[in-house]
Amino acid sequence: MLRFSEEVMLLLLNDNGGKFVDVPAPSLDCALAGAVLMDLAMENRIDTDPERLFVIDPTPLDDDLLDPTLERIVESTESHDTAHWIRETAVHADGIHDRSLARLVERGILRQEDDRFMWVFQTRRYPVIDNRTVREVKLRLMGVLFSDEIPDARDILLISLSDVCGIFGSLLSTAELDSAAERIAQVRKLDLMGREVAKAVREIETSLAAAIAMPMH
Amino acid sequence: MDVTTERQEGVLTAQVGGRIDGSNVAQFEEAIRTAIDENDRAVLIDCENLGYISSAGLRAVLMTAKSLSSRNAKFALCSMSGPIREVFQISGFDKIVAIHPSRADALASFDS
Fold first, then answer.
1. Which of A99, A192, B37, B98 is the most exposed place for a label (fewest CB within 10 A)?
2. Of A49, A56, A193, the CB nearest to B23
3. pLDDT in tens, B86-109
4. What is the ipTM of this complex?
5. How deeply is A46 buried, as exposed, middle or buried, from its count of CB atoms within 10 A (0-12, 13-18, 19+)?
6. pLDDT at A118
7. How does DSSP classify residue A215?
8. CB-based contact (8 Å) between A51 and chain B?
9. Which residue, among A192, A196, A197, A199, would best test binding to B if mutated, counting the most B CBs under 10 Å from its CB?
10. CB–CB of B87 and A191 under 8 A?
11. Contact at CB, A190 and B62, closer than 8 angstroms
12. Phi, psi at residue A128, to the nearest 5°?
């Protein structure tokens, strides 16, 4: 089974060319951090409530995407809320990003292609080899968005992450997005961790906007 | 966490007490799953003695609702304390799952 961060990377992939949809870096960093925390929750290593995130089982999963974050949480001597751990884990988002893509290549879902632009600038693309996996992830999301059924726990979390990254803007037409907006809002509320990821992104965006608006001296 | 159940006219009522979090959510799920009979037309979880529920507990409740919905059985929650109700409301569960103030109200809703 794919980890959430791998699914997010697949959803961000353009249908042709192996390039990724442009997403604001703070949003993607928080989404990847949230993805790792969500996998740790689904593996019953951590749990949350509106006030704190806490360890249920400190046993490593032998998974290099999840274990470094679990170790940091286990070693923490203070109690913190989910937003804190999203911000803390987002610092390591580049590593999560690269590791997720490497795993998708190892799984035979993507292929890594390095090229040079104007003979100088190195560019990297990830063309899809196994289109079925990519299609399945997208169909799962669509299935939840355009039905009234109670969604599966994993699908709720993936919808929260996709919404944070603005993935739906690239997956759906404007009319589809309009008709799904209410459902997205309903589903993303259903998991406390999904709500906290969205909150962390909003807080970072607000602080960035405030920093930009600050007069220069 | 403790779960006690009773069945009346095809309605299973599970009274849940204590705390539900990741450390005991598997026991909670197992207790509810094994208590539900395929002929049950409705399942009620009475939260009067529930003192705490975490994200893992909320997921378990939602998955119970999903499983019952797939076989057209009714599902409801009742008798929540203020803080527990607040957690369910924050999560928007009240838009998906029926939440009643008392067991009597919930049982009456199954017959309407």
1. B37
2. A56
3. 999 989 998 899 999 999 999 999
4. 0.92
5. buried
6. 63
7. P
8. no
9. A192
10. no
11. yes
12. -80, 130
Query: What backbone torsions phi and psi does residue A123 show, to the nearest 5 degrees?
Result: -125, 150
**Domain extent listing, chain A:** 4-213
Q: Is A153 on the interface with B (CB under 8 A)?
A: yes
Say which CATH topology domain A4-213 has. yeast vps74-n-term truncation variant fold (1.10.3630)
**pLDDT per position as a tens digit, A28-86:** 999 999 999 999 999 999 999 989 999 999 999 999 999 999 999 999 999 999 999 99
Q: Which residue out of A150, A163, A182, A195 would a mutagenesis test of the B interface target, given it has the greatest number of B Cβ atoms within 10 Å?
A: A150
Q: How far apart are CA A28 and CA A12, in angstroms?
A: 10
CATH code of domain B2-107: 3.30.750.24
For residue A215, the model assigns a pLDDT of: 67
* Probe site for chain A from B19, B59, B75, B96 (most A CB atoms < 10 A): B59
Buried b (16+ CB within 10 A) or exposed e, A26-41: bbbbbbbbbbbbbbbb
| Stated pTM of the model | 0.92
Measured distance CA(B107)–CA(B43) in Å, rounded: 9
